[in-house]
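Illustration: Low conductance mechanosensitive channel YnaI.
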Amino acid sequence: MEYFGQPWFYWAVSVAIGLPIGLIALTELRSALDRRGSALTRPVELLRNYILPLAALLVLLTGANQVSVHTTPVRIVSTTLGFVVLVLLLSSLNATLFDSAPEGSWRQRLPTIFLDVARFGLIAIGLALILSVVWGANVGGLFTALGVSSIVLGLALQNSVGQIVSGLLLLFEQPFQIGDWLDTPTARGRVVEVNWRATHLETGSGLQVMPNSVLAGASFTNLSRPGGTHAISVSTVFAATDSPDAVCMTLSRVAGRLPQLRTDERPSTMPAGATEYRTTIPLRSPADDGPARATFLRWAWYAARRAGLHLDLADDDFATEARTQEQLQAIASTLRLTGTEQELLLPKVRLTRYGAGEALQLQGELPTQMMFVMAGRVQLTVNDDTGAELPVRTLHRGDFLGQSALTREAVTASAVALEEVTVLQIDRDDIEDLAMRKPLLLKEIGKAIEERRNRVQAVLAAASG
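Result:
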């Protein structure tokens, strides 16, 4: 019973009981956080593996063994514990504020330079407390010496310090954020990092590192602000004999089908004088500039020739009479055409081309002509209730689409060219006259309409099930 009166007894019992219980509790907590993928797993692991055992050792030394806090072993343990607590604070700050930050929140967009400043301040305060409390150092004198040294270093490194100050002033003003697109005198790209010295721009051809002092002293354009206003302007040239209204309508229709187009805006085309036309295309992001411009110019080449226009003042000699006749003969058996019927139908058909990615027809459209695939591949797709695009079938040479033009029904699937596609087009009235004179052809087309409708319904049912 004499142990109960000893000053070390309760300290020893507290460590003997509290340490195992604490280790078990922290182990279970870490396992639970790890299963959830929480950012707090690392801080809890530090608490379990280092801080709790070091704290127990310090209690045993000072409480149970009555070792003076001014002895070297106690100071070493205390300093080690202080450093680990400092690491825990840094890890917890990063985990609670930034690792778990919601997408698009201010915590996620906060530049790394501010995090570095916060970490540096926390480390300075922690070291000052350790030196003052544990070792009894004169922190005031130390900070005075550091202040004088800082002045000397500031004069010696004024260029580097100037860049740091310029970066801080630039970030406090916040003319841009991480992820914004900047157009500067020397580069154009997306901001991916801002540190003590420079701003990093991802330009698409490499990483442009721009000193903050240069960026702060120059004028630049933030292409991402205000949001929803970014657009590109593409110039094209047509022949003077081309109808301006036809050119504007064709170019606007091509731009309106670009995948990079901003959904809440529509493109527009205006004559720019002489034979030049300027198409304004609203885009989601400056990152889409290059792909959108390239796709627009490529599709405009095909669309202009289909419309009989002269892009870049060039004539189209693809759909010659001999080539058209050759392609018509290739589908003569499908349409059950005689030689005389081919000669009569030849002036009424058109041989045209579509570029890769172009839509030959859109789901819900009412077709005005029937198209026969003569070269290339066409992908049929359908959109479900959620807007997801589902593949239905791939059309090859000899297949046809737009057959519902006979029944004047909207198509149930979209058709997109997988590569350059050549099609032979026959207007609805002409194919209707032909089908009315050939009951077997009308029956085959009706069967094809029903089969394609059933295929679309099966794809939608499989996706929803």
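Reading the tokens back as a structure: Residues 2-158 form one domain.
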